[in-house]
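The methods section describes the discrete structure representation at length, but only in general terms. The central task, working out the structure tokens from the amino acid sequence alone, is never made concrete. Nothing conveys this as quickly as seeing an actual entry. For illustration, here is how one protein appears when written out as sequence plus structure tokens:
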Amino acid sequence: MSQTAAATDRTPADFWFDPSCPWAWLTSRWMLEVEKVRPVDVRWHVMSLGVLNEDKLDQLPEEYREKNRPGGVVWAPVRVCVAAEREHGQEALARLYTALGTRFHHQGLPRTKETIVAALEEAGLPAELAEAADTDAYDKELRASHKAGIDLVGQEVGTPVIAVPGADGAQIAFFGPVVTPAPKGEQAAQLWDGTLMVASIPGFYEIKRTRTQGPVFD
């Protein structure tokens, strides 16, 4: 098989994330496992919990209300992610997401500019990109990326959103899966296969059960 033919056999999976969300982080680490065990290539995009929740702040618990307000801690990291992608491309966004997520979710570091600068440096990106945290200069692009993902699944869900081409070429999109810890190896492959199977059924909308365990970062 030629390299060109092999490339066309791989499935692009568009993945929308907010770097502040621990559940999206776990799903993203699962997707990296999926790339190893299935012919899938992840394409990373940003979405924003701040944008998602801006019209329903009064419905959120106080702790989350403050985080999601304009200028709250969920806005800074995702703005910097948008700036990184605009200035340095998709691969840079992927590196930055990994560096941010490791600090936020595994190390428990605060969503401060200092943490963001350290993540930028690890990702090989200019520290000056952290200035995007305090400006709305990239918000138009942030909102456009958010809208592209959320329009596929509706306003009733959050991050992450995943979309893949179906058998007829139309996109199959879904929220989640929400899982902890991130499955690895064959378990990752089985979850991917099963998720695509149910998501591709016309009229299928939801499987859900109460979470009895918090995020496990291994």
Observations:
- Residues 1-7 have pLDDT under 50 and may be disordered.
- The chain is about 50% helix and 10% strand.
- The CA atoms of residues 117 and 127 lie 5 Å apart.
- The beta strands are 11-17, 40-46, 161-165, 171-175.
